[in-house]
Design a protein that fits this description.
With 254 residues, the chain is an alpha/beta fold. 33% of the residues lie in helices and 22% in strands. The protein binds iron/sulfur cluster (SF4).
């Protein structure tokens, strides 16, 4: 029988910071359809034959670590390899693990097909949800903003916990105007109701210049803890959080 393969750049058998409150096995799929200048995982932007991995060997790594209670797939953009993702998700659930993914939100149809397996979906919000703002951050002439909005709608209607992740990049998305515009869009799509049930959060994350893909982005200073805090407050969203190296890990704002 032909082996099922996936483009996988890396596996972290045990992470304490990638899945809320759960020790998790994290799988990094390679290949991405965005070209973000700030990308922190840019070595995984392109998939190559070196990354081709037998899915059975991934299942072995997941099941061998008895300390983990969850499995998370990140990237890259995991939904570009939907079949492999479904296979891993089904396996993780079959051995009693929680299952989650990170996504840039550009593939709502693929998201809809895997939603039944997801306990957690983390969707990137790159900037104000309009084409011009997205173009500056993701490096594509035609940013799929309407697809991102569709993904948010789909995730919001699901039972999964939804994290909206926004990497705060000074000069690109660090204004209170951006926070208000993003929070208005999220509210219109049902954020407050889901957050009230403890099923959604808005996480503002420190941009780390030294890890950035693009040289221009490497010259930007990282945002301070107080800036992230003020932006989280200005969003007015329930369950707003900040993530900054200066704080250790995730901190709720309110
Ligand atoms: S930041 Fe995420 S969406 Fe952007 S290029 Fe990197 S992996 Fe892709």
């Amino acid at each position: 029988m032909k082996k099922k393969m996936a483009y996988i750049g890396e596996i972290a058998p045990l992470s304490l910071s990638d899945y809320f409150g759960e020790p998790a096995c994290v799988i990094f799929f390679s290949g991405c359809n965005f070209n973000c200048g700030y990308c922190q995982n840019w070595k995984l932007k392109k998939s190559s034959n070196e990354h081709l991995t037998d899915i059975e060997s991934i299942k072995k790594v997941i099941s061998e670590n008895k300390l983990v209670t969850a499995c998370k797939v990140t990237g890259g953009e995991p939904l570009l390899q939907l079949d492999a993702l479904l296979e891993i998700g089904r396996f993780a659930k079959s051995i009693g693990l929680k299952f989650g993914i990170d996504t840039n939100g550009s593939l709502p149809e693929a998201l809809a097909k895997i939603l039944h397996l997801l306990d957690l979906v983390s969707i990137d919000i790159k900037a104000d949800l309009d084409e011009e703002s997205y173009r500056r951050v993701i490096g594509l002439q035609s940013p799929p903003v309407s697809e991102v909005i569709k993904s948010i709608e789909i995730a919001m209607r699901s039972d999964a916990y939804v994290e909206f992740r926004m990497v705060v990049i000074p000069g690109y998305n660090d204004s209170t105007k951006t926070m208000k515009s993003v929070s208005e869009t999220l509210r219109a799509l049902g954020y407050e109701e889901k957050a009230s049930k403890g099923k959604a959060c808005f996480n503002l994350i420190e941009f780390v210049p030294e890890n950035a893909f693009d040289e221009d982005f490497r010259g930007i200073k990282n945002p301070s803890v107080s800036l992230l805090h003020d932006l989280a407050v200005s969003s007015g969203l329930k369950n707003a959080r900040i993530t900054h190296r200066g704080l250790g890990i995730l901190k709720p704002v309110y």
